[in-house]
Amino acid sequence: MYDFTFHKPTKLDEAIALLKDADDGQAMAGGQTLIPVMKQRLTMPSDVIDLAGIKELQLISISSGIISIGAMVSHAVVARSHEIQSAIPALADLAGMIGDPHVRNRGTIGGAISNNDPAADYPAAVVGLNATIKTNKREIKADDFFLDIFETALEDNELVIEVNFPVPVAANYKKFPNPASRYALVGVMVSRGIDGVRVAVTGAGPSVFRALKMEAALNQSFAPQALEGLNIANDSLNTDLHASADYRAHLINVLTRRAVTAIA
Amino acid sequence: MHSVSMTVNNMVVSGDIEGRTLLVEFLRETLRLTGTHVGCDTSQCGACTVHVNGLSVKSCAMFAFQAEGTEVTTIEGVADGDKLHPMQEAFRTNHGLQCGFCTPGMVMTALALVNENPELTETDVRIGLEGNLCRCTGYQNIVKSILDGAKALRSQT
Ligand SMILES: Cc1cc2nc3c(=O)[nH]c(=O)nc-3n(C[C@H](O)[C@H](O)[C@H](O)COP(=O)(O)OP(=O)(O)OC[C@H]3O[C@@H](n4cnc5c(N)ncnc54)[C@H](O)[C@@H]3O)c2cc1C
Ligand code: FES
Ligand code: FES
């Protein structure tokens, strides 16, 4: 790893100024992806700006049917939060399924969604629960945030501040973990909210996506039988040494049915 | 080089390090606390597990500067002088180690799991060991050790 200058600002404005002033500045959350990537010299920032000193990024709050989770809240804190467990149990469950205890103590929601790993769990929650991402510049709807593999709508010097989740009527997350990495081979978040059903799929394609045909079928009849024979076209899915596109297509249907059964 | 300072095993320590210095490098190379091991350096094996402010972390995936001002506990801080900690004793009596390379990380993980849930079950232990690899034991005796150590700790209080 190449050396860099380490900064630990205590204010958001300060962090953004540091990012703007640096030759090649990089924000750091828990470093759970950034540090391994720097070890591989895939990224070589001149300055690393640690966000852990900024208090306002650490908050969880609930008001008028919205749960707000600060960008620096760890997976372990979300998994253990009584507020989240009672308002959106599927979200607490999902956070508790990420990686292992050590990774959950350091990894954050802000880092996870900004990184947009195609096999990460949180993108399924953000899209499946129709969350809104608040940054220092604007609010971005979940459907507009995740663009492609490791690519989001975030611009230069734009930081995630918090993620706002509307509390659904019901939701469930089913994950088929890759047994070695624990990342999602396929993960499906199903939710029923005031705007109808959402089905968000992670792990299967280049980036999280909504299974629109399944959503339509479930809006007609919210029962696992409604999904019979409804398969995602496998030409849009990943094939790698862990699973073929056909296998992933099959898993999407199975996991969606299981999630629907758990809710219905 | 910049100065970093933290509390390690109840002692205030400091050192001059580079930004890129990992916590595990600071512990092993600056402080010469070589009980914390590096098995993979890629966040997979958990041999480098230590506690930072009471939470288990992989010290190969944390910069030393991220630990500035925190309380760090390593395997060297666990025993009471020459007397093994009950969790270490449980690993000894249950044959929970063979080569011993993974053991510091296993013990630190075990202590974090028991702190979080003193009444943990076998399933809790197996799920809790997701981030720790052992190439020797096949895990059975590690799981036994942790359950036994948890029991010993419960009967202590
Ligand atoms: C062994 C292992 C197993 C894992 N298993 C899983 C799994 O099963 N499921 C899963 O979903 N994930 C998994 N992860 C990923 C992990 O959960 C973290 O969420 C992920 O690594 C991001 O880490 P971080 O939050 O520390 O962000 P960092 O690594 O610090 O940052 C990641 C990227 O996001 C940027 N960034 C960070 N914060 C912000 C912000 N507020 N605004 C804008 N950009 C930001 C950084 O600049 C960087 O580019 C695993 C990781 C490891 C090491
Ligand atoms: S050395 Fe840190 S996880 Fe293997
Ligand atoms: S005892 Fe040898 S690696 Fe675990």
Number of strands of chain A: 14
CATH hierarchy: architecture of the largest domain in chain B: Roll
Largest sheet data of chain A: 5 strands, antiparallel
Q: How many structural domains are formed by the residues of chain B?
A: 2
Please state how the strands of the largest beta sheet of chain A are arranged side by side.
4-5-10-6-7
Summarize the helix and strand pattern of chain B as letters.
EEHEEEHHHH
Integer average pLDDT of chain A: 96
Low-confidence stretches of chain A: none
Number of strand elements of chain B: 5
Runs of chain B in which pLDDT lies below 50 for 5 or more consecutive residues are: none
Strand order across the largest sheet of chain B = 2-1-5-3-4
Seen as an oligomer or otherwise, the chain set is: heterodimer
Number of continuous helical runs of chain B: 5
The end-to-end distance of chain A, rounded to whole angstroms, is 50 Å
